[in-house]
Each structure stands twice: as structure tokens, then as C-alpha cells.
Design a protein that fits this description.
Keywords: Membrane, Transmembrane, Transmembrane helix. This is Urease accessory protein UreH-like transmembrane domain-containing protein. This protein has about 230 residues and is mainly alpha-helical. Helix 2 crosses helix 7 and helix 3 packs parallel to helix 5. The chain is elongated, with a radius of gyration of 19 Å. The protein has a 3-stranded antiparallel beta sheet. The protein has one domain.
């Protein structure tokens, strides 16, 4: 693989790992439900993988919008002469915008999910810090609810990476990005769930890292764009 494919591959792996590992909602509900319902390790793993694939699917739908836009641009004759520089600059600009957006989200009091255990049941609710949540606003977590939570939470930074490959009309790059993103996301979720289920703590405080997930993801895309535009990746 050339340097461009390696850069895109590392960016996709980094973004999918950070997005998954930094959010407790990617693994905490599986750990809590597994313990409260006394599920087997196999049943827990299967639900985790299914929800992980649903999460990937929603992210890829957004990403393929980027591929479609890139392919449509290739049909314009005047675009052929500038597409190399354009795609790199688009990657860089999107990364910068997402980085700024991530900083804004980290500063403001962004709503976030929490999971509560009440007897043998688990409930999910969303709130801001210091906000009191009434019991009726809590939703009982079932496997279907978990699946829907993950389908509704895509990873937006995948869009510019697939847009870049779409502009280049490179099916090999698209295949590398999709495969690496899928495998990394599902394995990270499964690893975090199994670690928590069997009593091992993670190596870092993911709740604090979650607040800066947008910043880190935006920085990864920005660095990739800088490499494409100025370093000849």
C-alpha cells in the first residue's frame, strides 16, 4: 500500500478506536445488563457484536454520502484538473471545522447518557450536569433499545475520509477504510465489554476522555489533510 492508503487506514483506525473507547455508552450498558441478568459470556458477546455492527452501519451510511458526492464531482469535466488538490484541501478544511466543533462541544454543558441499575433492570437517561432527571424520563434498556441507541449514534469523521477516496474513485481505498473501521469498532466494543464483565478496569478514565472525543477526531482528520496537501502523502 502507498503512503496515502496508510494515512487513511491509520486515520480510520484511530477515529473508530477513539470514538468507541472514549464513550462509556459503547460498553457500560452491556456490562451492567450482563451482570444484572446473569447472561453468559457468549450471549453478552453476541449482543455487543450485533449492536457494534448496527453502529458501524449508521456510520457507513453517512460515509457513503461522502463517496457519492465525490463520485458526482468526478462527472464534471473541469473538476478533473483540480480534484487532487481539492480533495486534500476538503479533508483539511473538514478536519479543522470538526476540531473547532469538538472544542465547542467540550466547553459547553453537552447532554450525555447515564445508565442506572434498579433491581434486575437497567434504565438509560440523558441529562446535563446538575440537572435533575425525573423517573418517568428514564427508559428501560432492552436488547432492542440498545441496538437502536447504537444505530442512532454514527461517527461523523468517517465522512471526509470516504469523500477523499470517492473523489479519487479508488475502490481499494474505500474497501480498506470500511474494513478497518468496522473491525476496529466491533473489536474495541467487544474488548471493553469483556474487560468490564470480568472485573478488569480500563487503563484510562473514559468518561473524561469522552468529552474531548470530537476534538481528538477532528485533530486526526486535520493531520491527515495536512499530510495530503503539504507532505505529499
Amino acid at each position: 500500500m502507498d503512503s496515502t492508503v496508510w494515512a487513511l487506514l491509520l486515520s480510520a483506525v484511530s477515529i473508530s478506536f477513539i470514538h468507541t473507547a472514549s464513550g462509556p455508552d459503547h460498553y457500560l450498558p452491556f456490562i451492567v445488563i450482563s451482570k444484572s441478568k446473569k447472561w453468559s459470556g457468549m450471549k453478552t458477546a453476541v449482543l455487543t457484536v450485533v449492536c457494534g455492527l448496527g453502529h458501524v452501519l449508521s456510520s457507513l451510511i453517512l460515509g457513503f454520502i461522502g463517496v457519492f458526492l465525490g463520485w458526482q464531482l468526478n462527472k464534471i469535466s473541469w473538476f478533473q484538473d483540480i480534484r487532487g488538490n481539492f480533495s486534500g484541501w476538503a479533508l483539511l478544511i473538514f478536519g479543522g471545522i470538526y476540531l473547532i466543533y469538538g472544542l465547542f462541544q467540550a466547553i459547553r454543558n453537552k447532554p450525555h447518557k447515564h445508565f442506572d441499575v434498579m433491581g434486575d433492570d437497567v434504565y438509560v437517561y440523558e441529562h446535563n450536569h446538575s440537572e435533575i432527571v425525573m423517573p418517568q424520563k428514564r427508559i428501560k434498556v432492552t436488547p432492542l433499545v440498545l441496538f437502536m441507541i447504537f444505530v442512532m449514534g454514527p461517527s461523523e469523521p468517517l465522512i471526509p475520509l470516504l469523500f477523499y477516496s470517492g473523489v479519487k474513485h479508488s475502490m481499494s481505498e474505500i474497501a480498506v477504510l470500511v474494513t478497518s473501521f468496522t473491525v476496529t469498532t466491533v473489536l474495541t466494543m467487544l474488548g471493553m465489554v469483556l474487560l468490564g464483565r470480568y472485573g478488569y478496569s480500563t487503563l484510562f478514565n473514559t468518561e473524561k476522555l469522552e468529552r474531548y472525543m470530537g476534538v481528538v477526531s477532528g485533530a486526526v482528520v486535520t493531520v491527515c489533510g495536512v499530510g495530503m496537501v503539504f507532505l505529499g502523502w
